[in-house]
Amino acid sequence: MTQKPILAALVAAVSLALALPATAHHSRAAFQLDVKSEMKAKITKVRWTNPHVFLVGNVVNDRGQVEEWTFEGHSISGLSHAGWAKDTVKEGDELLLVVNKHREADKHFALMDHVVLPTGRIVYSVGQPPVDPNAPKPPVKASTDFSGNWKYVFPGTPEQVRQRILLGTPAPSKDGPYTAKARAQVAGYKEDDNPTLRCIPATLPYLLMAVYEYKWTRYSDRIVIEKEQFNESTRVIHLKGKTPPANFKPNPMGYSVGHFEPDGTLVVETNGFNAAPWGNGAGIDSSASKKIVERYQLTNGGLSLSLSYTQEDPEYFTQTRSGQGTFAKMPDFTFAKNPPCDLKAAQQHLAYDK
Fold this sequence. Notes:
The longest helix is centred in the N-terminal third of the chain and has 17 residues, at 3-19. It is globular and about 70 Å long. A hairpin with a 6-residue loop joins strand 1 (37-47) and strand 2 (54-60). The protein has a nine-stranded mixed beta barrel with strand order 7-8-9-10-11-12-13-14-15. Strands 1-2-3-5-4 form a five-stranded mixed β-barrel. The protein contains five helices and 15 strands. It is α+β, with helices and mostly antiparallel strands. It folds into two domains: 3-22 and 141-330, no CATH class; 37-125, CATH 2.40.50.140. It has helices spanning 3-19, 76-81, 158-167, 180-187, 343-346; strands at residues 37-47, 54-60, 66-72, 94-101, 109-116, 122-124, 148-152, 213-218, 222-227, 235-238, 255-260, 266-271, 291-299, 304-312, 321-330.
C-alpha cells in the first residue's frame, strides 16, 4: 500500500470517530428503557427547569401505601416541541404516566415516556408519538443565503436516534490521536464529570452538530447563529476579515471569521477559545490553542446544509481531527424562552445513582 492510501484511511478513521456527536446530558441507562410501566400519580410539584423538567407526585403502591415519586421529563425546548407549556401539568393534577422506571425498585425515580392529562389528552416527553401520515406538514422555504432554521440530521432511524440521545454522552474512544495529557484523561474518564452537570456552557465542536435547532440570520457583515435550548451559545461569524476587538476575552464560543469561496462555500475559522472542561469532546478538555475550521455548503436546492470541519488542539491531539454532518431546512419559528440552567435539575439524577 502506498503512503497516500494509508493517510486517507487514517483520516477516514479519525473522521468516523468524530462524526457521531454526543448528547450533552446525563445518561438514562439507569432506567429500564426497554420496559414501559403505567403509574397513577397526584402531582405535588412541577419543576419547569433546564436542563430537564421534573414532576413530583404521590403514588399508591400495591400495598395501599403512598410513595413519593420523581418523574424526569425532557428539556423545556423538547417539551415545547411536543406541545407542552409551563402550565400543561399543574399541582393537584391526577395523571396516568407511562414511564421507564429506575432499574433499582427501591428508587422512586422514573423517566416519563408520555402522560395522559386529566382531560384525556396525551402529551409526550421522551417517547415517540404515533406518526399521522395524513397530518399537514408546515411549509419549508429553501434557503438561498444560509438564513433560516436548520436541524442536524442524526444518522439512523427515529428510534435509534431517540435511544442514542437517551443514553447520553458515550465514553471517549481509547484509540484517538492523543497526547499523553489526553490519554491520561481518557483513562480516568467518569461520566459524572460531565461539565453540563455543573451548568458549564457547552463549546465547539460539540455545538456544531447537537440536538435542537439552529437559527441562522445573514447580515451584510456577519452571520448570527442562535442555538435552541443552549443558553450562552449564540455565535457571530464575522465576515470581511474582521479581527477581534482590543477588549476581546477568550470564551467557549471563540471568535469566528468567515469568507465565501467562488462556489459559494462558507469557510469559518474560529480561534480565541478559553480552556474548557470536555472542550474537545467527552472526557477530553481543551486549551486556548484549540482551532476549528468549518466548511458549509447549501445543497438539495437550499433545503439541506452540509458541514465538514477540522479540529486542532496540540495540547491534546497529535494530529488534526475532522468530522462532517448534514442539516435539514426546517420551518421558521421562535425558540422557546429558556431559564438559566438549574444546578439542582442538572444533578437531580445523582441522588438516585448512589
